[in-house]
């Protein structure tokens, strides 16, 4: 059924592999616990006897059973609280904890990609809260690729027309330290001070200085140092920051490249 965000394509829920591992461990602990609790009954009337304190068996059995039940509760909580992401042709809907967030790709202003731990966060504007989609979502890498590609295609086409009409487009970026911190712990917070780059059809302004697009050599990332550099044609570095600090980086890269070559935007 077609909606305001196009035809539905796929639903991404909590990762089944992770919940299966948790469930298997829970069942194993519960099984061992129940076996130990029943051991005195199973040994009754047999030649094998347990000469230790019966309370020891009860304590061990109860402990393992409790761990198993906690694991079952963990799987239930995992499925209940983790978001379900409904991917549509022109947007996505995230349902989590009774709250629903919907965003069209052509209105998706900021997209943050967690570098090592996977997952992403997005918002329609700086005035709206972030929505987080974790790597614990099933097929999270595929979902992330879809979101990035559709933002680049759909929002990119809209922004490209605005740029050709003489408007400026702003891209926010976070402090370098914030990027490194998020590589270690993908917490549900992106409450950091932001700076911005301003892209026009003729220039890119970084840290208050405008550079003609012809002077921008490239945008290069280094996975070993987790750094991203915007470099000048004379070999100097215009900006160095963390690889994930620039919001909607793929969109910036696509727009910058298209403006520099003068080609039609590949929507």
UniProtKB/TrEMBL annotation:
The portions of this protein that span the membrane are: 21-44, 56-79
Q: Which UniProt keywords apply?
A: Membrane, Transmembrane, Transmembrane helix
Q: Which domain of life is it from?
A: Bacteria
- Name by which UniProt lists this protein: DUF3592 domain-containing protein
């Amino acid at each position: 059924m077609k909606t305001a965000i196009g035809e539905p394509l796929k639903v991404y829920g909590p990762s089944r592999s992770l919940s299966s591992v948790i469930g298997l461990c829970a069942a194993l602990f519960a099984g061992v616990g129940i076996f130990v609790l029943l051991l005195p009954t199973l040994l009754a009337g047999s030649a094998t006897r347990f000469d230790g304190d019966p309370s020891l068996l009860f304590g061990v059995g109860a402990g393992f059973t409790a761990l198993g039940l906690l694991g079952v509760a963990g799987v239930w909580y995992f499925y209940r609280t983790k978001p379900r992401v409904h991917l549509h042709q022109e947007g996505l809907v995230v349902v989590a904890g009774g709250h629903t967030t919907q965003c069209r790709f052509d209105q998706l202003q900021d997209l943050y990609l967690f570098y090592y731990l996977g997952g992403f966060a997005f918002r329609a504007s700086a005035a709206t809260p972030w929505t987080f989609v974790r790597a614990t979502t099933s097929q999270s890498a595929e979902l992330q690729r879809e979101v990035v590609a559709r933002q680049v295609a759909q929002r990119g086409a809209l922004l490209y027309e605005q740029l050709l009409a003489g408007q400026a487009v702003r891209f926010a970026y976070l402090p370098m330290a914030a990027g490194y911190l998020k590589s270690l712990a993908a917490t549900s917070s992106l409450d950091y001070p932001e700076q911005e780059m301003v892209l026009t059809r003729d220039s890119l302004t970084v840290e208050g200085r405008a550079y003609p697009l012809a002077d921008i050599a490239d945008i290069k990332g280094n996975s070993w140092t987790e750094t991203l550099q915007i470099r000048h044609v004379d070999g100097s570095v215009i900006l160095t920051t963390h690889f994930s600090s620039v919001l909607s980086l793929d969109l910036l890269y696509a727009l910058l490249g298209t403006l520099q070559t003068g080609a039609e935007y590949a929507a």
